[in-house]
Design goal:
- The chain is an alpha/beta fold.
- The protein has a single domain, classed as Rossmann fold (3-Layer(aba) Sandwich), CATH 3.40.50.1820.
- It has 11 helices and 8 strands.
- The chain has an 8-stranded mixed sheet, sandwiched between helices.
- Helix 2 (68-81) crosses helix 3 (94-105) and helix 5 (142-149) packs across helix 7.
- The protein is globular and about 45 Å long.
- The two termini are 28 Å apart.
Length: 269
């Protein structure tokens, strides 16, 4: 693990494995460790780089207003600091919008693009969800907050898995890098103001869209729009998965991502 100076701030990052570089971009309020179930197995085949977005984990707190475009510049600055001219990008939720912005604005930097349970723009319903969750987060304990909001992250099938939700609540509530409330609310503002619609046809990279059939936080209409508008895109719908599929079924995500990233590669020796 290390710290890079990128876009005039410090970003904390981790590298695992060797090979072609793949940058993993996290969503709202989650640090790089949220990728562990995906990057650990993929590191056998790729150079997996995960990092903490600004205002979360061990990366810099940024009190000035910012948006997803600034966070895209952070990611590009990290690639520059690591001397990586082109990488595969894997983004989840807010991280998927950051990845879209990179692919739209700097197409030469992106070899392949994977968008997991993500969206294209904020809307009144999403703003209401995130606004109410921010309000709950101000007043509830960590555990109470997780129990009050995980319905939006996990599917009804996940809730039927014996002990699974209790374990995810325990792990999340015990996070020693719990995001400060003001930083969380800055992330929320960035999420709700993001918008890539009308520009998706500018994405040149082959794109895989992973959608959860039971995702109620970023519903299927977003993934369907991405699949229609991105010129070289395909969509895979994961049955039984909700918004948090990278935690509820990481092995499925690894299978889809690994197969997609290895397409048309020279055989390994």
């Amino acid at each position: 693990m290390a710290v890079a100076h990128a876009n005039n701030i410090e970003l904390y990052y981790r590298e695992d494995g060797r090979g072609r570089p793949v940058l993993f971009i996290q969503g709202l309020g989650v640090d790089h460790r949220g990728w562990a179930g995906v990057t650990r197995p993929l590191a056998r085949r790729f150079r997996c780089i995960s990092y903490d977005n600004r205002d979360v984990g061990r990366s810099a707190l940024v009190e000035a207003p910012y948006g997803v475009l600034d966070m895209a510049d952070d990611a590009l600055g990290l690639l520059d600091a690591l001397d990586i001219a082109q990488a595969d990008l894997v983004g989840v939720s807010m991280g998927g919008v950051i990845a879209q912005e990179i692919a739209i604005r700097r197409p030469g930097r992106v070899r392949r693009l994977v968008l997991v349970t993500t969206y294209t723009s904020g809307d009144p319903r999403g703003s209401a969800i995130f606004g109410s969750q921010a309000m709950l987060r101000r007043t509830l304990s960590h555990e109470e907050y997780c129990r009050a909001t995980f319905w939006s992250v996990y599917s009804h099938q996940d809730y039927r898995r014996e002990g699974f939700i209790d374990e995810m609540v325990r792990r999340t509530a015990a996070n020693d890098l719990w995001q400060p409330q003001d930083a969380y609310e800055r992330h929320v503002r960035a999420v709700t103001l993001a918008n890539t619609e009308g520009r998706l046809r500018q994405i040149a990279a082959p794109t895989l869209i992973l959608a959860g059939a039971e995702d109620i936080l970023t519903p299927m209409r977003f993934s369907s729009l991405l699949a229609r508008e991105i010129p070289d895109a395909r969509i895979e719908v994961v049955e039984g998965a909700g918004h948090g599929m990278i935690w509820s079924c990481p092995e499925v995500v690894v299978e889809h991502v690994g197969r997609f990233l290895e397409e048309n590669l020279e055989p390994r020796t």
